[in-house]
């Protein structure tokens, strides 16, 4: 990924364009390399003359390093390594931008403070950047900030125009702005333009992004879309809105301790399992063992078994639960490697089972196998299933897509109900439904939950 910033000297009386180096805090004669958790960034100046000076930020995303930060066992086998992130991830570029030009983003310049405070004719160019959404999105995002915006769609293959276009554009922004503002606009709007779930934006980064929006994002006509694209979950959007005051730029006050959605979901599932009275519990598709950790805290659960198809996830679970260091736990928790799509005698005879955000990871025909194996063969006394409610995705924006790249489907409330009621009827269970997380008046809850009980034993 490449971003160039070009300054041109407006007239011979004006300071040389190479003063850009003072503003960026990067000397035009030097090449600066930085290792980031997801790759390497290099800043260099392909052109540095008194008339024109270009600084380039080259980001080489390392998909292998990246795969270590994504959750184990999710996605198609090669997807963590072969994907478009090295070429187009707006969120990586944003993080690299802040890393390389953080001081410039504060607007301070030891040598050229007056220049840093002056709007200058600047051009930012990105040969390829992800732009998911309507064709006029780049203009809608950058236009209101005073830029002339050129966004040319990048064809999938120039030799085969019939293959269509990719969701990428060649982007050129030109305007007369303070450098600090240009950097803040890019930092906030490139990930918003990308629109994908932001792989490397954790909460702390989201907070920084929003801070760099102070002073301009609050009056931006697309503010809602921009904020929504950062924050996939309603809870966070609300929180960001609360924090969005002009003072937020200086304010380092701790975040409001609003429970995060996944924690809330796990707490709800743990409550249902407790109420079931079960002593032996299965966590099917246990992932990294977050639910197991909660359940271990309750002495009621004498035997806990986590099953996952991903050996890597199980390794992480074993580490997080400190199974090696705490042999006394080994009697209470076991981790099994296996797939819910195969009948498995080890899963028979349990009081309860949980499948938290698991079913949507299976292909529909595999889901049928899971349903039969779980309710027909393993037959736990109680079964708790949670899955996203697709209707709620409208809250994230019209083009938000699925919530995770590995989701094979996301169901509406009616679809979930149809599956659950069918499974219950076919296998002699009763089922009731509950909402988890934020509930929208017309789209319903973020997460839907079904609790099955054996009708006869
Ligand atoms: N329940 C965990 C993890 C949810 S992610 C939590 O709430 O944190 C979905 C998990 O299901 C992943 O760990 C994935 O490896 C697992 N999974 C997907 N298909 C599976 C299958 N066929 N059998 C068992 N586990 C599966």
List keywords for this structure.
457 residues; c-terminal autoproteolytic domain of nucleoporin nup98; Rossmann fold; binds S-adenosyl-L-homocysteine
CATH superfamily of the largest domain: Hen1, N-terminal domain
Instruction: Write down the CATH topology of the largest domain.
Output: c-terminal autoproteolytic domain of nucleoporin nup98
List cofactors, ions and other ligands.
Answer: S-adenosyl-L-homocysteine
**Total count of domains:** 2
Helical/strand content category? alpha/beta
Q: Tell how many strands the DSSP assignment holds.
A: 14
CATH architectural designation of the largest domain:
2-Layer Sandwich
Strand content: 25-35%
Question: What is the terminal separation in angstroms?
Answer: 60 Å
> What's the overall average pLDDT, rounded?
84
What are the SSEs and their pairings?
Elements: E1 2-8, H1 20-24, E2 32-36, E3 39-48, E4 52-61, H2 63-67, H3 85-88, H4 90-106, H5 113-116, E5 120-130, H6 137-142, E6 148-155, E7 165-177, H7 179-194, H8 203-212, H9 223-230, H10 234-243, H11 261-276, E8 280-284, H12 290-296, E9 303-308, H13 311-320, H14 327-330, E10 333-337, E11 352-356, H15 364-378, E12 382-388, H16 413-427, E13 429-440, E14 444-454
Parallel strand pairs: 8-9, 8-11, 9-10, 11-12
Antiparallel strand pairs: 1-4, 1-5, 2-3, 3-4, 5-7, 6-7, 12-14, 13-14
The structure holds S-adenosyl-L-homocysteine (SAH).
């Amino acid at each position: 990924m490449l971003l160039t910033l070009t300054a041109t000297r407006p007239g011979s009386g004006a300071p040389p364009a190479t003063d850009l180096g003072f503003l960026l805090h990067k000397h035009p004669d030097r090449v600066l390399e930085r290792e980031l958790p997801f790759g390497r960034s290099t800043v260099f100046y392909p052109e540095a003359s008194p008339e024109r000076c270009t600084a380039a930020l080259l980001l080489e995303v390392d998909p292998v390093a990246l795969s270590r930060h994504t959750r184990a066992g999710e996605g198609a086998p090669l997807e963590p390594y072969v994907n478009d992130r090295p070429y187009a991830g707006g969120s990586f570029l944003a993080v690299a931008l802040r890393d390389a030009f953080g001081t410039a983003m504060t607007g301070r310049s030891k040598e050229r403070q007056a220049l840093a405070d002056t709007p200058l004719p600047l051009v930012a160019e990105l040969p390829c950047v992800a732009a998911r959404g309507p064709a006029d999105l780049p203009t809608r995002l950058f236009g209101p900030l005073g830029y002339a915006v050129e966004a040319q769609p990048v064809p999938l293959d120039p030799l085969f125009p019939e293959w269509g276009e990719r969701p990428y554009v060649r982007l050129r922004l030109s305007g007369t702005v303070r450098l600090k503002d240009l950097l803040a606009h890019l930092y906030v709007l490139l990930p918003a333009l990308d629109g994908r779930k932001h792989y490397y934006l954790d909460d702390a980064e989201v907070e920084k992004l929003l801070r760099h929006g102070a002073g301009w994002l609050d009056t931006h006509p697309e503010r809602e879309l921009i904020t929504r694209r950062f924050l996939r979950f309603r809870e966070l959007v609300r929180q960001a809105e609360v924090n969005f005051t002009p003072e937020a730029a200086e304010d380092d006050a701790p975040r409001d301790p609003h429970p995060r959605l996944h924690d809330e979901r796990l707490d709800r599932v743990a409550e249902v399992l407790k109420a079931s009275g079960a002593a032996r519990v299965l966590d099917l598709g246990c992932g990294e063992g977050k639910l197991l950790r909660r359940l271990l805290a309750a002495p009621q659960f004498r035997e806990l078994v986590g099953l996952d198809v991903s050996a890597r996830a199980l390794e992480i679970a074993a580490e997080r639960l400190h199974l090696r260091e705490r042999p006394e736990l080994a009697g209470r928790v076991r981790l099994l490697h296996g797939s819910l799509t195969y009948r498995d005698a080890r899963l028979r005879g349990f009081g309860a089972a949980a499948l938290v955000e698991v079913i949507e990871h299976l292909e529909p025909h595999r889901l049928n196998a899971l349903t039969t194996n779980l309710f027909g063969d393993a037959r736990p006394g109680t079964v708790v299933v949670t899955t996203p409610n697709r209707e709620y995705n409208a809250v994230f924006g019209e083009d938000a897509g699925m919530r995770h790249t590995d989701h094979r489907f996301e169901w509406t409330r009616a679809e979930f109900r149809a599956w659950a009621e069918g499974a219950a009827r076919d296998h002699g269970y009763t089922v009731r439904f509950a909402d988890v997380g934020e509930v929208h008046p017309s789209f319903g809850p973020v997460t839907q939950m079904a609790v099955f009980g054996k009708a006869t034993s």
